[in-house]
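[job 0412] stage=complex_fold ligand=1,6-di-O-phosphono-beta-D-fructofuranose status=START
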Amino acid sequence: MTESAAPPIEELLGHPVVAEVTANVNAELVERRSYRPPVCKVFDSPYTVLEETDEYHFEIDAEARRQLPKIIDNRVQKVVGLGETDCSDSIKERCTRRRSIGIVFSGGPAPGGHNVIAGLYDAAKKANPENRIFGFILGPDGIIENDAVELTQERVDQFRNLGGFTMIKTGRTKIDTPKKMELSRQTCKELGLDALVIVGGDDSNTNAAFLAQELYDDGVQVIGVPKTIDGDIQVRDDSGKVLCAMSFGFHSAARAFAADISNLSNDCSSDVKYWHICKVMGRVASHLALEVALQTHANMTMIGEDMANYVDKRRLEAARSDGTTDYTAYGMTLRHMSRVICDGILRRAAVGKNYGVLVLPEGVLEFINEIQVFIIKLNTIIADYNKTHDTDFHSDFLLLEDKLEYLRRLARRSREEEFLSVWNTRDDDLFNDIPDFFQEGLLTERDAHGNFQFSQVETEKVVMGLVKDYLDQLKERGQYKVGISREYYEKTMKKGGLDPDRFGPALFQKFEGEEYLLVKESIFSLKTLSQEMAKEGLIEEKKPLPEPLEKIFKKSVPNFKTQIHFYGYDGRGSDPTRFDCIYTYNLGHTAFSLVANKATGQMAAVKNLEHDFETWTPIGIPISGLMRLEERKGRLALVIEKSVVDTNSTSFRVLEALREKWLAAAPGDDHYRRPGPIRFSGKSEEERPITLVLNALEGQV
Ligand code: FBP
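[job 0412] stage=complex_fold status=DONE, emitting structure tokens
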């Protein structure tokens, strides 16, 4: 098109087609925003009350009793609906009294957060149109600094069923000092808040319990909401009864990751040249990796919790025969893990599949013996340093080299002064053997809650570095080969005028009856190929190799190529699945019912998530009952215990049983599953996480 023929840009932008296709609002967005998730039956009632139940029991930690006396005797509460006629005036007054409620997001985003707000807002406005909801900006900092906005219908409607925490943003600050507590109290007073709803992970719900204790006498109720894509908030009572099967956001994130990873399976099984290495978020827990495996049938999925249970039986036996016990046989080492991965790669290559998909949880290294030891030791050293010097290790030693020098000094002291130190020369030597980037990762500052920041560690680089090294060794030894299909071999040989049956036994490890043929270990170069063929009298010495032989040999030489992917932030920002839309909208309603009925120190939850929607039951769970003492930043702290993958669960056992099938180290097709994208309407999206569906079978099969 010539310049003179082009319409003026204003005219172009004003064209209805251009305006439509470049608008921020598209049909999908309109549909999402207009969707109204169904609510549990109780919320159709004009009023709700709470029914306390003794059906569930939690072992109370003595320290929790000491630190949280005002909320320690909370019990599980069931939200019950009441009609106009069966409701007393005092209940009516309690439910409809004018209230101001603050809500805050805490920690990483998780799909569905906006619907918690929408649920709370709708329930509050239905109870009393004069109720006010304030959103704190940028997480707990918004509470400390009194940075809040009153949420309007328009603002809430703009974000219904949409991903992200964009409406009010989020942050990771912990309200953990008397000063921050005091400022938070002041904010609640200034805004005239009756209640505060904290939407966060295990640490933020822990923080909610402490705030509930602290603000109890001020009459400010605090309610937690279980958010995190990691899926590590799952609540069972002491007898194993499930109260909260999953935190919100998990399903959407897993589905988002799975959709992408499934696309990678299509890619690698098409151009058959890459192993796609997919690290998925989830901190120390491997729930997301497990769900992604069930969704996609990736060829290999490492589950950290499974590795912790690993026992090297050969080592144990060898020691037993000497009359000793080899304690190092328990748990997996980094080296061993890389061997397990190599084994899968080798076996697939042997049937011509030098490609595949490997899923690695981001926190997998936490379960590896030597890394676990480093993490614990470094936590202790840093905490001791901070305590002794009343300062911050990471600010005092900004550069990696400075940190390493401090560790070196510790090791030297332990040797020269012969005192028992957490860090000795052996630790220092081992630590110096690992690559810089990994040292840096292990020395990364803990987050505000004392968590190791797994997302900052290049786990995949560490693991794949070892895998590559070992594969190189195996290649040199002639043990890593790409299997040649018999059909291809015969066709190629015949086309070149050679008798496949004459050459086969000399060329391959096993020739008879095999569908895939593996070139002999002793043949690892064109030179060794010539030598072997000449030795068997199949070609004349020093004569050029026949072309078909050379072609087949070259095809058998593996080239291990990887593409690395990190799935995390994308899934956290994904739009919620229908499951998460409905779940979170009901969590918002539950939070309001808890507030309206004077609860505090409770976590809003929905029981029976693993079953049909008709059975979903909104409840309040006593947060204090979930708390245990755990090491954080080298010190014991009272926190909600993270739930990790239970290797006895049905979901894990199913994965375990299907691992071999999904590795597909046999001739024939792979067994990839195509979960498809998150579709808001239509039938393609399953109702709930597969992990939940499988775990719900517990006790039934
Ligand atoms: P939450 O525990 O706050 O829900 O965050 C989960 C998570 O996405 C982890 O999976 C991940 O390790 C971490 O956040 C990353 O944190 P950051 O946003 O600070 O990089």
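The two ends are 69 Å apart (CA to CA).
[job 0412] exit 0
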